[in-house]
Write a structure and sequence with these properties.
The chain is of the alpha/beta class. It has one domain (14-284): TIM Barrel (Alpha-Beta Barrel), CATH 3.20.20.70. The protein is built from eight helices and twelve strands. A twelve-stranded mixed β-sheet has the order 7-8-9-6-5-4-3-2-1-10-11-12. Helix 1 (48-56) links the parallel strand 2 and strand 3. The chain is globular. 37% of the residues are buried.
């Protein structure tokens, strides 16, 4: 299947596969050529290297990446790289051990994550991007600490606006807009626009003059990027979702188990793509009810 586009003529070439809905932390928040493996925490899924190896053998797949909380990464990085994984994003919301325990509800160890980041770099899973969900009163006092890392080390930080969980109508008062985050970070100096190190995601990238790393801003709330969204999500229980922030989904697992043909599968995929909404409705207070937001 080639030339896959939705009803608003957005090309769809990026599939995010939730390989599990399980996670070892409990944090508080086709026509396809790009694959991102997510969760839950994908590294708790058995057989993940084999899955990556299978995906890497598919013709026209030119980018396989993974989003992880990093706690298990050091033990898997080399095997994942050998299997065909290209790069990783690591969720890291704090640089303080005690705060890490608070945010993850005691489920992880910060040193394990930092070790995982270094091992990933060492085996060539580059660039390692670090996702920081900014929360007022929880970790926003570390903005300058993270930003400084991009100057003195080759850290690629992406500050992400907090989104509501399923069942919540708002993220206030924890929400901080990307414009405010940038304003506070620029106490260290003026940020200059730059191209992304890899990938074509929604982040807008900047760097300080002569910095080794970069800073990205992801703005799902204050400045949504739905008009250029090229993504679909395949959930851990076999549903194809054209928009993460919509409750609409198409069941693929049961038809596959019932033996549908390739042509019928193609029609299911087309149905999901055709129903991709123009944009999410969080600005109007709508939050998906059916699922908790995942990576």
């Amino acid at each position: 299947m080639t030339g896959l586009s939705d009803s608003f003529q957005r090309p769809i070439n990026y599939l995010r596969i939730s390989v599990t809905d399980r996670c070892n932390l409990r944090c508080v928040y086709w026509g396809i050529n790009k694959i991102r493996l997510t969760g839950g925490e994908p590294l708790v899924r058995s057989g993940l290297p084999k899955l990556i190896q299978m995906l890497a053998q598919i013709e026209n797949i030119d980018d396989i990446s993974l989003t992880t909380n990093g706690t298990l990464l050091s033990g898997y990085a080399a095997e994942l790289k050998q299997a065909g994984l290209g790069r990783v994003n690591v969720s890291l919301d704090t640089l303080k051990p005690d705060r890490f325990e608070l945010i993850t509800r005691g489920g992880g160890n910060l040193d394990q994550v930092l070790e995982g980041i270094e091992v990933a770099r060492a085996v060539g899973l580059n660039p390692v991007k670090l996702n920081v969900v900014v929360m007022s009163g929880i970790n926003d006092d570390e903005l300058l600490d993270f930003a400084t890392k991009t100057i003195t080390e080759e850290w690629h930080i992406r500050f992400i606006e907090l989104m509501p969980f399923a069942g919540e109508s708002t993220v206030a008062p924890r929400f901080i807009s990307a414009s405010e985050i940038r304003q506070r970070v620029e106490l260290l100096g003026e940020l200059e626009p730059c191209l992304p190190t890899m990938g074509n995601g929604p982040a807008k990238y900047f760097r300080f003059p002569h910095a080794m790393g970069t800073i990205g801003f992801i703005t799902p709330i204050s400045e949504h990027f739905c008009f250029q969204c090229n993504r679909m999500r395949f959930t851990a229980d076999g549903k194809l979702r054209p928009c993460l922030l919509s409750d609409y989904e198409v069941d693929v697992k049961q038809p596959l188990r019932s033996g549908i043909s390739s042509a019928e599968l193609k029609e299911l995929i087309k149905q999901a793509v055709a129903n991709k909404p123009l944009r999410h409705r969080m600005a109007e207070g709508y939050v998906p009810k059916g699922r908790r937001l995942v990576k």
